[in-house]
TrEMBL record:
Name of this protein: dTTP/UTP pyrophosphatase
Positions annotated as active site in the UniProt record: D71
Catalytic activity, EC: 3.6.1.9
Site (described: Important for substrate specificity): R12, T72, Q154
GO biological process terms, semicolon-separated: nucleotide metabolic process
Function description: Nucleoside triphosphate pyrophosphatase that hydrolyzes dTTP and UTP. May have a dual role in cell division arrest and in preventing the incorporation of modified nucleotides into cellular nucleic acids.
Annotated source species: Asticcacaulis excentricus (strain ATCC 15261 / DSM 4724 / KCTC 12464 / NCIMB 9791 / VKM B-1370 / CB 48)
Keyword hit for Cytoplasm: yes
GO cellular component terms given for this protein: cytoplasm
Keyword DNA damage included in the entry's annotation: no
Keywords per UniProt: Cytoplasm, Hydrolase, Nucleotide metabolism
Predominant place of localization: cytoplasm
Family: Belongs to the Maf family. YhdE subfamily.
Length: 190
């Protein structure tokens, strides 16, 4: 059986793969520019980045393998929210999503001996109206740092969600159903 290489350093993605009985043989994060292109939608960005990550790692791997990559993007309308790196970015994201709907797009891409296959999974969420105290407490927890849209649904932010239509694991970082379908379709049986 060819090895499964995860093109991501996300512990959440490793955990999600474990939930569906898969363990990567290697973790080899990609290093690509994640800057959105002019006029790129959140959906387009998630798809492009997941494909680019898989292809970048495939270019480094010398033996045949299954290379899996993903990228999660949060959008409000056509606006792409950042992967929050500061408390101010977490605050701006939460204030924007407070009391309204947003979408989470997770692109998943697989380079295999059969070529490149990819999907983008869309999940719609609605947050409750957040008080200043709730936002302050969430920022103080540190959970939003390094997360697309400034929150992690698997933690304290789960209490903000009024409504979710789509894939919960996709919002966490990897759409497990679609990932398994891509792997099975490419012949992976690990």
């Amino acid at each position: 059986m060819l090895p499964l290489i995860l093109a991501s350093s996300s512990p959440r993605r490793v955990d999600l793969l474990a939930q569906i009985g898969l363990k990567p043989d290697r973790i080899l994060p990609s290093d690509i520019d994640e800057t959105p292109l002019k006029s790129e939608t959140p959906r387009e960005l998630a798809g492009r980045l997941s494909r680019a990550k898989a292809e970048a790692v495939a270019a480094l791997v010398t033996q045949p393998a299954y290379i899996l990559a993903a990228d999660t993007v949060v959008g409000v309308g056509r606006r792409i929210l950042p992967k929050a790196e500061t408390d101010a970015e977490v605050r701006a994201c939460l204030e924007l999503m407070s009391g309204r709907s947003h979408r989470v797009y997770t692109g998943v891409a697989l380079v295999s001996p059969k070529g490149l296959s990819a999907r983008v999974v869309e999940t719609r969420l609605q947050f409750k109206r957040l008080s200043a105290e709730e936002i302050d407490a969430y920022i103080a927890s540190g959970e939003g740092l390094g997360k697309a849209g400034g929150y992690g649904i698997q933690g304290r932010a789960s209490a903000f969600v009024i409504h979710l239509i789509g894939s919960f694991p996709s919002v966490v970082g990897l759409p497990t159903f679609e990932t398994l379908q891509l792997l099975r379709g490419a012949g992976y049986r690990g």
